[in-house]
Design brief:
Length: 208
């Protein structure tokens, strides 16, 4: 970059690159390219994951921008690969000068190896099998309370948490009349399902 304005712009890009790499370390490599010197465009490489060095040439993406100012300024989340075969998710941001020509690029390369390993581990951890019998780990009848409230709300074309105060009072008193509020943790279940406090649920239950 020849003039003072371009040099100042590049220094700001380097600062942004450093901030991004510090934020997303150790998973993201951030590279600053000077596209006015494509044969040795890499000016800075933070959190180096690709093994490249400062002074190495630009990539095909950089050459495409140099050849055409109409090339997209932002190419985000495209599949890429490091030299050793590791899968990468890349984003490339082109920067133009006042004349509309690309003069620099800021590139982010995320190593997907660890994330794919974590994804596989989580999938294995969260997988479940069918049991020979259906088992419930909550006091018997609490699901009946939830279903009863949901049916009440459905008849009014709404949801349990969107019921009006009068409707909440009505459904709680209906539950009391059916004996469902005698169940252990019934009021806690009612309050949670309606999105109200237990104190309010008890108040509605006592009212006539």
């Amino acid at each position: 970059m020849a003039n003072h304005d371009d040099h100042s712009l590049l220094k700001q890009i380097e600062t942004i690159a450093k901030g991004l790499s510090d934020t997303f370390a150790p998973f993201c490599e951030v590279v600053v390219h000077d596209l006015t010197h494509p044969e040795h465009s890499i000016l800075a490489i933070h959190n180096n994951l690709s093994g490249r060095k400062v002074g190495e040439p630009t990539t095909e993406m950089g050459l495409a921008r140099i050849s055409s100012p109409d090339f997209p300024a932002l190419v985000a989340n495209y599949a890429n690969q490091f030299a050793d075969g590791r899968p990468v998710k890349s984003t490339s941001i082109g920067i133009k000068d006042t004349s509309g020509q690309y003069v620099a690029a800021l590139c982010l390369n995320v190593d997907m190896t660890l994330f794919r390993g974590m994804q596989s581990a989580l999938a294995q951890f969260t997988s479940v099998e069918n049991a020979p019998v259906e088992e419930h780990l909550e006091p018997s009848g609490l699901e009946t309370i939830r279903l009863r409230i949901d049916r009440f709300a459905a008849k009014r074309a709404t949801t349990a948490r969107a019921l009006s105060p009068d409707d909440r009072k009505s459904v709680i008193q209906a539950l009391r009349a059916e004996g469902l509020l005698e169940l252990r943790k019934s009021m806690e279940t009612v309050a949670q399902h309606l999105g109200i406090s237990r104190a309010t649920a008890y108040l509605y239950a006592r009212q006539k």
